[in-house]
Design goal:
Elements: E1 2-6, H1 10-24, E2 27-31, H2 34-43, E3 48-52, E4 54-55, E5 58-59, H3 60-69, E6 75-80, H4 85-94, E7 98-101, H5 106-121, E8 127-130, E9 133-136, E10 141-144, E11 147-149, H6 153-163, E12 169-171, H7 172-180, H8 191-206, E13 213-216, E14 220-223
Parallel strand pairs: 1-2, 1-3, 3-6, 6-7
Antiparallel strand pairs: 4-5, 8-9, 9-10, 10-11, 12-14, 13-14
Helix pairs in contact: 6-8
Length: 226
């Protein structure tokens, strides 16, 4: 899952990102100012955006407003040192899904991210089920017809991205962005996408799964279930 953290306190931002990446294996991009946040929101699709209201060069509420005006389906959690009722109401009215007051425990933020993604992606449950494939969001486990399948972090993230965008053509660049975040811009090649697709497909087929991953030549891939 891909997270954008918008936070100008660099030590706090890094500690949050490190926790999410290390303990729960999210991919997390960081924006420490308003303009970088707007740029990243325009370039990439995120499962969840965590945004601080008080930024040095703008207002986090404007980012929420812009994201919702673009009809983004991204979940939004506001984090702020301000516990004012008006700020909470403004953020929620603009389209934020949750509001967390600083200081907070990282485990609570993590729980709220999972709760939000469950609501948006899994209709409130922990499992994403497509035919014989079951993907569990909480423990990051994948089962084929009830039997556990061992996947790497990248393979799991790739399968999650394909399944949550089933029957849609996904470009190689969008898949690469989901797997590595903004660092994709400094990569010389997207060949690693093909390798991850190849390895994931082989593991699924070897486990007795049908071949749902289809190549759309010249464009990318589609997880076809129809």
């Amino acid at each position: 899952m891909k997270i954008l953290l918008i936070e100008d306190e660099r030590e706090l931002a890094q500690s949050i990102a490190d926790y999410l990446v290390k303990n729960k294996k999210f991919n997390c991009d960081i924006a420490d100012n308003y303009h970088k946040a707007v740029d990243l929101c325009g370039l990439y699709d995120y499962d969840c955006i965590i945004v601080d209201i008080g930024l040095p060069d703008g207002n986090g509420l404007d980012i929420i407003s812009k994201a919702k005006s673009d009809k983004s389906k991204t979940g939004i959690i506001v984090i702020s040192a301000r516990d004012a009722l008006d700020d909470k109401i403004s953020g929620l009215n603009l389209g934020a899904d949750d509001y967390l007051v600083k200081p907070f425990h990282l485990s609570e933020l993590n729980a709220r991210i999972y709760s939000l993604i469950r609501r948006l992606k899994l209709e409130g449950g922990n499992d994403l089920l497509i035919n014989e494939i079951t993907l569990n969001l909480q423990n990051r486990e994948v089962k084929i017809s009830g039997i556990s399948l061992n996947l790497t972090k990248s393979e799991y993230n790739l399968l999650y991205y394909l399944m949550t965008n089933k029957n849609q053509v996904l470009s190689k660049s969008s898949i690469a962005e989901h797997l590595v975040g903004e660092y994709v811009d400094i990569m010389n090649s997207l060949d690693f996408v093909y390798l991850h697709i190849k390895n994931l497909r082989k593991k699924l087929l070897d486990a007795g799964c049908k071949d749902y991953i289809k190549t759309v030549y010249g464009v990318g891939y589609k997880f076809l279930t129809e």
